[in-house]
Amino acid sequence: MNTQIYNKLASYCSAAERCRADVEEKLRKAEASEEEKENILERLVAEGFIDERRYAKAFAADKFRFSKWGKRKIEFALRAKRVPEDCIGEAIDAIDPVEYERTRQELTEAKARTLKGDRSSMENRARILRFMAGRGFMLLMLVLINVGLVKADGLITGREPDYAGRKLVLTYETDGITHTRAAVDSCTVDNAGNFSLDTRIETTQKCLIDLGYYKGVLYVEPYKIYNVNLPPYREPSKQELSNPYFSPKEVLLSLINPAPDDLNIKITAFDDSFDVALNRLIRSEITPERIENEFFELEYKFGDKSPFFTTYRYCSYAILVNLYGPTQPDTAIDAFFINEPVAYNNPAYWEAFSVLFEQYKDVTKLASNKPLEELVIIHHVLAGTMPLSALKTIQTPENKLIAEQVQKIKETGASGSYTYTTSVTSIDGKTLDLKDFESPQIFIIFANSMLGKSQSDLDFAVQRTEKWRGKCAVLVVFLDSDAENIYRLTQKLKSRDNILFSTENSEFIKAFGVKNAPAYFRIDANGKILESPAASPENFNINL
Questions:
Q1: pLDDT digits (tens, 9 = 90+) for 450-461
Q2: Which member of 21, 272, 351, 461 lies 3.0 to 4.6 Å from 81 by CB, making a disulfide possible if both were Cys?
Q3: What is the pLDDT of residues 104-149, one digit of tens each?
Q4: Residue 204 in 3-state DSSP?
Q5: What share of residues in the chain are helix, strand, coil (percent, to 5)?
Q6: What are phi and psi of 420, to 5 degrees?
Q7: By the 8 A CB rule, do 259 and 237 touch?
Q8: Least reliable range by pLDDT among 116-120, 324-328, 425-429
Q9: Which residues of 485-499 are buried (b: 16+ CB within 10 A; e: fewer)?
Q10: Three-state SS across 212-245?
């Protein structure tokens, strides 16, 4: 055994109570074999330097007495250090209940004194409850909400040290056509990994949190509190970021001590059974009888009357019914859509909508459900199968908002529109105006350094820069962030004034609405878009 390491750790444990996780973290950095590390740990435990039960009681007492933490926050912190549950239970029980109640009252009063206006107002009571929840007095909040004394905002809380210092933004999609995301709340994870997000929503939503490589998903109901685990943080790789088809992987966030009837649990179980039923139908001869059998089996297992989950199930059934070729999509639309209100907040509604109405053109059949008819029109305008002028027929307030967003999308990068600025910055840091290229027209290539097509487009740019000098300049804008690869590709060029990073030219390229490479446009020196999209380089002809 390495006695030097052992003595250092024994002194470390003597200075203050330590748990096994604390010592393991110190040992992780030590230069010793795994066998030696395990022997050192066992000896420290055997000689009483490490005692999880003693540590838990000291930790709980200190955090309550000096930091004014509530029991829930203490529990979460001890669990994060992997302290056994029986030790945590004893430590929590050792807190004096009289002192605990006195502390709760003092904190409540102290917070109330900082608030403006009527302390008993619904808004201020909600602020007090959120503050107390952050301190770990979660049970109080749950009791008050459940008995209806206050209708506070909901909360999403958790602890994940991997995310310390990172910003979390809670959003949801406002509709399933434009996929516009609305922000709900944001927070910065503290140094210990603790975070708290308010869920100020009026209807149940599928909420999203961007988590690097992952996109966290949680079905959030108004006024409910969720304690969640986040997946280990992982940055997307350079290759993934350079891939125009990469998107973060959706993961349903796991809940700590969820209620048995929690919506997330019900949807997960239903989705698993639905996928089995769907695969079973696809592998067999699809008949109305088989579809009906699967429907009744799923409803027998999952049927309940909660509005969101009922809509979720029935829109999923529409996809099953649509499998029967001779009647698709009319039977599914008649059974599950034509007589139902639009469920703007339900992802299953939008999934079925995109399947059923992708090729649906005779919108007059939907006249009895005006909001649905309008959504199908909006969908086809965005897809380019109906003219932009069709949006003028939209009347439903919710649909008008979606139509406005579609109009912005369609007009972004359209011929006749202008870039937001005529100033660009080359990869060598030169700031140039479009007129500095001394050409009446400019051919723009949006590229990705990982794509072979972009390499040939770059070669085209080099060849045409000299040939078209004074008549048509060529700009190459790299959409990926792999600076090392981009420099390698362009290092032999005589001039790189016409090579741009998208990150340094975001205001310029915003007008084009480009997300993936390759893409091509033709503009003039004033930033007016002349051709959108332009032909690819091998087919591009310009009147010189």
A1: 888 888 888 888
A2: 21
A3: 878 888 888 888 877 666 677 777 777 887 788 764 444 444 444 4
A4: coil
A5: 50, 15, 35
A6: -75, -20
A7: no
A8: 116-120
A9: bbeebbeeeeebbbb
A10: ECEEEEEEECCCCEEEEECCCCECCCHHHHHCCC
Mean pLDDT for 473-497 is 87
Count CB neighbours of 34 within 10 A: 8
Chain mean pLDDT for the chain: 87
Which of these, 310, 307, 308, lies nearest to 299 by C-alpha position? 310
- Helix (H) / strand (E) element for 453: namely helix 452-467
CA 294 to centroid of chain Cα atoms: 33
Q: Are 448 and 541 in contact (CB under 8 A)?
A: no
> How far apart are the C-alpha atoms of 187 and 167, rounded to whole Å?
6
Q: Which residue has the tokens 């649906």?
A: 360
pLDDT band at 153 (very low <50, low <70, confident <90, very high): low
The per-residue b/e assignment along 386-402, b for 16 or more CB within 10 angstroms, e otherwise, is: beeebbeebebeebebb
Residue scoring higher pLDDT (347 or 148): 347
Are 422 and 527 contacting, i.e. CB atoms less than 8 angstroms apart?
yes
Give the highest mean pLDDT range of 32-41, 320-329, 333-342, 495-504: 333-342
Chain center to CA of 271: 20
Sign of CA dihedral 43, 44, 47, 51: negative
Task: Evaluate the CA torsion angle 221, 224, 229, 234 in order and state its sign.
Answer: positive
- For 295, other C-beta atoms within 10 Å of its C-beta total 17
pLDDT at 305: 84
* Max Cα–Cα distance, the chain, nearest Å: 88
Separation of alpha carbons 133 and 72, rounded Å: 9
CA–CA separation, 127 and 129 (whole Å) = 5
| Coil, helix or strand at residue 328 | coil
Packing angle between helix 397-411 and helix 370-383, nearest 10 degrees?
10
Cα separation, 317 vs 518, in Å, equals: 38
Angstrom distance (rounded) from CA 372 to CA 368: 9
Instruction: Name the nearest CA neighbour of 267 among 256, 253, 281, 282.
Output: 253
Closest C-alpha among 367, 361, 415, 416 to residue 386:
361
359, two tokens = 């090729």
- Under a CB-based contact definition with an 8 Å cutoff, are residues 140 and 104 in contact? yes
The whole model's pTM is what? 0.61
Closest CA to 399 of 177, 171, 205: 177
